[in-house]
Amino acid sequence: MMTIDEIRLALQDRRLTAIAQATGLHYNTVIAIKRGEQLNPSYDTLSRLSTYLSTPAQGASAHTGADNGRSY
Length: 72
Known about the structure:
Layout: H1 4-11, H2 16-23, H3 27-35, H4 43-54, H5 56-61
Helix pairs in contact: 1-4, 2-3
């Protein structure tokens, strides 16, 4: 499992709404972790984020550079 610092780093360039939806966590929880405002998240929260961010196919879809379904 990723540490809280690794999770914060991984969240820096991600679409937090997509991560919140995919993990079942509230958006405010995800953003508080990213900003360092949530200093003691539950094991379940860390586990959900770590699992999501450690899975290449899922983690890639939440990058800010993802296609997002737009046609150019």
